[in-house]
Amino acid sequence: MTAEHLTEADYETIARELDSLRDEITADLGDRDSAYIHNVIRLQRALEIGGRAMLFASALPPAWIAGTATLTVAKILENMEIGHNVMHGQWDWMRDPKIHSTTWEWDNVSPAEQWKHSHNFVHHTFTNVIGKDNDVGYGILRVTPEQPWHWANVPQPIYNALLAMFFEYGVALHDLDIDSIRAGENDPEETKEKLRAIGRKIARQWAKDYVAFPLLTGPQFLSTLAANFTANVARNVWAHTIIFCGHFPGDVEVFEEEQLEGETRGEWYVRQLLGSANITGSRLFHLMTGNLSHQIEHHLFPDLPSNRYAEIAPRVRALCDKYDLPYHTGSLRKQIGSTWGKIFRYAFPGGSRPTASDPGPAPEALPAPEPVPVA
Predict the structure, then answer these.
(1) Euclidean distance between CA atoms 179 and 185, whole angstroms
(2) What is the pTM of this model?
């Protein structure tokens, strides 16, 4: 672990500094933040309406391509910058019942309530703790040498490609806790109820994307059906790519369950720093990732509005420099290469943890603190 040099006093100071940063941002939330999320929602809805309208002429290749691309962007925005972040409670401070973590149901086959438990609670509490955080390999991938190897890992690059294409279904099954089912430790009735909820959500999503909207386009039914399927797969691949590149590239660290015993707030913060990675890019790129390209800042402050992550990133990086902690960051191409490289390598026995990572761009090269213009 690269934080072994930290003292108890260091952890206490880190906790105070990050708590102070959080309090500062929370106290500053106001009209510009509210305007940001409302503008993003308006943009997303306009893109979805425009994309679906173009698909009324989907028999024509240019209209099919334009409509599918526009619908894909709308679905990415809804899932990542809106749905994911609203359900994290990032906008609950506005007390708007229409944009609230308790009421939002996203355009995804994963039921919101199950996702909030598996993601908001399990993953963000036990980030990268083997045996506690089901996101480490999603139950089917060996992504670190600390995980035991099995012959079933050999074809895992194929598993990962399929997971990317149908990522929303993998996410939907996440809260079932497959490991507990395999071990016979689950509550069968609870599992059945979760499966029924997943089935109902899948039925609603399929009825919308693969029946209702294609039927509305009349003779364009099949081409619209294909467009909706393509948009969903493209959205899934993009979400999978961004999420995996925020958790598994380079020398991002994993932790043993024993390290949770007596964990202080400062130690929790440091575990988030060591177990996350950022992706560099433009302000538009950050918007399209749901600002999960600032995965480090998101893991530190999961319920702070996402439009503030670019603003606080230089200060988080400066804190890492101050305490000689790594700040994992790199381009999308670098992070994709590193992540897939690990998936191929750890498909086979053995493997060792990387010893160095790209330091990434200098703090001053990070995005400006202004919110992304969306209207």
Answers:
(1) 9
(2) 0.92
**Phi-psi domain of 253 (left: phi exceeds 0; alpha: psi -120 through 50; beta: other):** beta
Per-residue pLDDT of 166-221, as tens digits, reads: 999 999 998 887 777 777 787 889 899 999 999 999 999 999 999 999 999 999 99
- Give the count of domains, the chain: 1
Q: Kindly provide the b/e burial profile for residues 270-288, where b requires at least 16 CB atoms within 10 angstroms of the residue's own CB.
A: bbbbbbbbbbbeeeebbbb
**1 in a domain, yes or no?**
no
Cα separation, 305 vs 202, in Å, equals 29
The answer to which of 6-15, 175-184, 269-278 has the lowest mean pLDDT is: 175-184
Query: Which residues, 6+ apart, have CB-to-CB distance to 305 below 8 Å?
Result: 29, 33, 36, 37, 85, 90, 91
User: What is the C-alpha separation between 72 and 49, in angstroms, rounded?
Assistant: 12
For the record, the structure tokens of 230 come out as 């393509």
Q: Which two tokens stand for residue 343?
A: 């998936």
**Residue 2: inside a domain, yes or no?**
no
Task: For residue 321, tell me if it sits in a domain.
Answer: yes
- Taking the CB of residue 44, how many other CB atoms lie within 10 A of it? 22
- Three-state SS at 341: helix
- Helix, coil or strand: residue 329: strand
Range of the domain at 235: 8-365
Three-class HEC string of 47-102:
HHHHHHHHHHHCCCHHHHHHHHHHHHHHHHHHHHHHHHHHHCCCCHHHCCCCCCCC
Q: Are 288 and 80 in contact (CB under 8 A)?
A: yes
Q: State the CB neighbour count (10 A cutoff) for residue 186.
A: 16
The least confident of 83-87, 146-150, 282-286 is 146-150
Return the structure tokens found at 23: 């309090």
Has residue 44 been placed in a domain?
yes
Burial of 143 (0-12, 13-18, 19+ CB in 10 A): buried
